[in-house]
Amino acid sequence: MSKRPSRFRKSVPRFCGKNLQQTKESKQAFVGQPTSACLALALVLPLVLASALPASAAVKASDVIQRAIDGFVRPAYARLHDHADSLTKAMRTLCDAPSQEHLDAARAEFSGTVDAWSVVEIIRIGPITQDNRLERMLFWPDRKSIGLRQVQAALANKDQTAADPAQLAAKSVAMQGLGALEFALYGDGAETLAGKGDPYRCAYGAAVAGNIESIAAEVSDAWSKPDGFAALWANPGPQNALYRDGTEAVTELVGVFINELEMVRDVRLKGFLGSNPEADKPKQAIYWRSQNTTRSLTGNLAGMDALFQASQLGDALSPDGRWMAESIHIQLVNGAADATAVRGPIDKALADPALRQKLDHFSLVTSSLSTLIGTRLTAEFGLTAGFSSLDGD
């Protein structure tokens, strides 16, 4: 069995960015391997110091992770698959009988799929990291418009191989996912989908939808395998190829919140929200064409809250630290409410002082949560916060 990444130590979390790629490669190498040795008895590891709580208050790390998997990860991916299936059917109906009604229905299913994906995309470990699935599902940000140009070229040249889901899966990741389908449904020339003037555009969109459905199905199935990544994460032990003890397993979970809060605030939000209106970049916002920008932000925070509640991570806090769990929940709910209050075209929202204030408050909430989780919660659990996975070095 391959050597464990050298940074798997209690003092250095698994989400430290300097070795992120190494960790992903290691995970991919072990997913699906025989687990007779890997699934050793999980360590009963209290998440708080034994001296701080009576023995009855000890919490098993394996129980926390199993609750996160069963209560959030698996149902969230199953929901994504259901939405992707409905999206594919709606696209096929549109292609078979073009009309404004069917175009509106396909767009509604697209938004529903964005909602479902935004909730579960916070889980950037395990099966989604294999075979470039994460990038194939959503290639973003596309700062140099490389992906956009590839999609536009396929539409202009009517590339028949791109309209075949099987062949599309082997093409550039930028042509396969939600960003590509958004342009097909909302970009320049999308109005032709309501008529019979551009059957290729619809065929390409249907192929992309089918590809999204396939990825969702693959990931959902992988999380349900009894000997897959879920079993490794939920059963830390000395012989486990990925998680040597409960601290490493829980550090992975806490890293989800730390990394995703930074991604949502510094990449998603600040990618379009400037320090003043003159510095705004509305066309740099994710899903700006479909007006799903803030729906995506809502889903991200709602997903974090659902994961935190499902794992019952707060139960491992000492009595003096229990306030953190309630504060995390309240702030995640408030942040999601801020994003929910901002609807419509993002450029118009940015021009509205009241809505802009909601986005500013969203930023403040996520910053507060980063401190609360990345500093206070990790200290309570005896974890050491390291470099973010978004540092890029």
Structure description:
By secondary structure, the chain is mainly alpha-helical. The protein folds into 2 domains: 61-232, M75 peptidase, HXXE motif (A middle domain of Talin 1), CATH 1.20.1420.20; 243-385, Four Helix Bundle (Hemerythrin (Met), subunit A) (Up-down Bundle), CATH 1.20.120. 57% of the residues lie in helices and 0% in strands. The protein is built from 14 helices and no strands. The chain has helices spanning 20-30, 61-96, 100-120, 133-137, 146-157, 165-168, 178-186, 199-224, 229-234, 246-269, 293-311, 323-340, 346-350, 353-380. Helix 3 packs across helix 11 (293-311). Mean pLDDT is 86; it is low at 1-57 and 386-393. It is found in: Cell envelope.
Sheet having the most strands: none
Number of distinct beta strands: 0
Query: Could you estimate the helical fraction of the residues in percent?
Result: 55-70%
Categorize the overall geometry. Answer: globular
Q: Note the gap between the termini.
A: 28 Å
Would you tell me which CATH topology of the largest domain applies? Answer: A middle domain of Talin 1
Low-confidence stretches: 1-57, 386-393
> Architecture of the largest domain, CATH level 2?
Up-down Bundle
Give the CATH H-level superfamily of the largest domain.
Answer: M75 peptidase, HXXE motif
Strand content: under 5%
What is the alpha-carbon Rg in Å?
22 Å
Helix-and-strand structural type:
mainly alpha
**What is the number of helices?**
14
> CATH top level of the largest domain?
Mainly Alpha
User: What number of domains?
Assistant: 2
Order of helices and strands: HHHHHHHHHHHHHH
- Mean of all residue-level pLDDT scores: 86
Keywords: Signal
InterPro entries: Imelysin-like, Imelysin-like_IPPA, Imelysin_sf
GO cellular component, one term: cell envelope
Protein name: Imelysin-like domain-containing protein
